[in-house]
Specification:
- The chain has helices at 5-25, 112-124; strands at residues 35-44, 54-63, 69-70, 73-80, 83-90, 95-96, 100-109, 129-139, 147-156.
- The strands form 3 sheets. Strands 5-4-8-9 form a 4-stranded antiparallel sheet. Strands 1-2-7 form a 3-stranded antiparallel sheet, with no helix packed on it.
- The protein is elongated, with a radius of gyration of 23 Å.
- The N and C termini lie far apart (86 Å).
- It is α+β, with helices and mostly antiparallel strands.
- It has one domain (30-156): Immunoglobulins (Immunoglobulin-like).
- The protein has 2 helices and 9 strands; from the N terminus they run αβββββββαββ.
Length: 160
Amino acid sequence: MNTNLPARTGIVLLLVAAWMLSGCAGMSPGYENPTVTVQSFKPIASSDGSGLPKFEIVLNVINPNLEPLELAGVSYTISLDGNDIIKGVGNELPVIEGYGEGSFTLTAGVNLLAGIGLFRSILNKEGDSFDYAFEAKLDPGAFRRKIRVSDSGSISLSGS
């Protein structure tokens, strides 16, 4: 009877696990992170009758890799004058072909409590221009690092 069998089995399992992990890490040598930029950020008319502003955010994605980029989802936050007014998610995103470029649009509405704070800020502010900050995390799926993007600037709620 061979008493080294459990030790050999453990060594074999350890080698198989190491081989599998190295395979995942080396799945795409030379992979470059895609570039994501905010193409536009603007207020749009609210169609739900609430009077709260809605925003349209267009993101542009450049895929510098051979394989297509299939984005599983996105989560994002929008702040006006330092107040987080919108937090949202999306999962109907296009596939960006290898060495290709594509855009997609997120439409976000203000939640009621944040809208009350925004309305109060509008009443107390001279002019209609606000500083905004947009942060998003795009999920390219398993074995890929999340893609983070941020943008900031000034926006006029009158749309002009």
